[in-house]
């Protein structure tokens, strides 16, 4: 899709978003030259209105924004860049220019799900996960059951570290089971959200 740089005197606003956490990191502006440089080098470069020149984010701090995906809005006058930051984005040292912490650990589950999916179909000698898939759905389901029993046992004790480790084991094997059944984690989240909406309406 072509970007309309003429619409706003040669500049378009650019929203930069962390590819993993989905947090908005900053807002900047690009002219066509900055955009082409960004596309070519895969590092975000803006047009600095105060310096009146191209400005690569991180050129002095080393905290570059590495481009993963570029999207253009429906009016062709705004750019969304999903990127991986090398460090804090804001010049103040904050994670984002909106003074937010750039962490959402829950999203790691999606990353872990992707890794599990990559292991599916690979040689059992390559990883524990591949070995689980090779054993078949019955063994995977059995393993989930075993981990569920273990977390129940740990829940009755006072060792919180052991409980967290058993919870992690259960969650991991649950994700493997989902993949074995070709069910995405988001599908399960959708069911929970639908239940929430339904119960909210009833309440």
Key words describing this protein structure:
elongated; single chain; 203 residues; alpha+beta; 43% helix; four-stranded mixed sheet; two-stranded antiparallel ribbon
General description of the model:
By secondary structure, the chain is α+β, with helices and mostly antiparallel strands. Helices cover 43% and strands 18% of the residues. It contains six helices and six strands, in the order E-E-H-E-E-E-E-H-H-H-H-H. The chain has helices at residues 32-41, 108-119, 128-135, 137-155, 160-180, 185-202, and strands at 12-18, 24-30, 45-48, 53-56, 65-72, 79-85. The protein has a four-stranded mixed beta sheet with strand order 2-1-6-5, covered by helices on one side. Strand 5 (65-72) and strand 6 form a beta hairpin. Helix 4 runs antiparallel to helix 5. The longest helix has 21 residues, at 160-180. It starts with 11 loop residues before the first strand and ends with a helix. The model has no long low-confidence stretch (mean pLDDT 94). Pfam families: PRA-CH, PRA-PH.
Instruction: Look at the structure and give the mean pLDDT.
Output: 94
Could you give the count of β-strands?
A: 6
Structural class: alpha+beta
- Number of helices, where a helix is a run of at least 4 consecutive DSSP H or I residues: 6
Radius of gyration: 23 Å
Calculate the terminal CA-CA distance, rounded to whole Å. Answer: 46 Å
* N to C succession of SSEs: EEHEEEEHHHHH
Label the overall shape: elongated
Stretches where pLDDT falls below 50 for ≥5 residues? Answer: none
As a percent range, the share of helical residues equals 40-55%
Largest sheet: 4 strands, mixed
Keywords: Amino-acid biosynthesis, ATP-binding, Cytoplasm, Histidine biosynthesis, Hydrolase, Multifunctional enzyme, Nucleotide-binding
Catalytic activity: 1-(5-phospho-beta-D-ribosyl)-5'-AMP + H2O = 1-(5-phospho-beta-D-ribosyl)-5-[(5-phospho-beta-D-ribosylamino)methylideneamino]imidazole-4-carboxamide; 1-(5-phospho-beta-D-ribosyl)-ATP + H2O = 1-(5-phospho-beta-D-ribosyl)-5'-AMP + diphosphate + H(+)
Subcellular location: Cytoplasm
Enzyme class: hydrolase
């Amino acid at each position: 899709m072509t970007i309309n740089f003429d619409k706003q005197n040669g500049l378009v606003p650019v929203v930069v978003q962390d590819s993993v956490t989905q947090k908005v990191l900053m807002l900047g502006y690009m002219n066509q030259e900055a955009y082409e440089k960004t596309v070519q080098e895969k590092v975000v470069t803006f047009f600095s209105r105060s310096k009146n020149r191209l400005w690569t984010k991180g050129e002095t701090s080393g905290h570059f924004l590495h481009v993963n995906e570029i999207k253009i809005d429906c009016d062709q006058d705004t750019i969304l860049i999903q990127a991986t930051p090398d460090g804090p984005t804001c010049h103040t040292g904050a994670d984002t220019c909106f003074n937010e912490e750039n962490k959402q650990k829950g999203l790691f589950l999606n990353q872990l799900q992707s890794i599990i999916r990559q292991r599916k179909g690979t040689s059992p000698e390559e990883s524990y996960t591949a070995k689980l898939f090779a054993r078949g759905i019955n063994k995977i389901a059995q393993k989930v059951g075993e981990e569920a029993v273990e977390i129940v046992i740990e829940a009755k004790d006072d060792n919180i570290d052991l409980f967290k480790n058993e919870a992690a084991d259960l969650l991991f094997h649950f994700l493997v089971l989902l993949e074995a059944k070709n069910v995405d984690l988001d599908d399960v989240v959708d069911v929970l959200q639908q239940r929430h909406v339904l119960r909210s309406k009833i309440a």
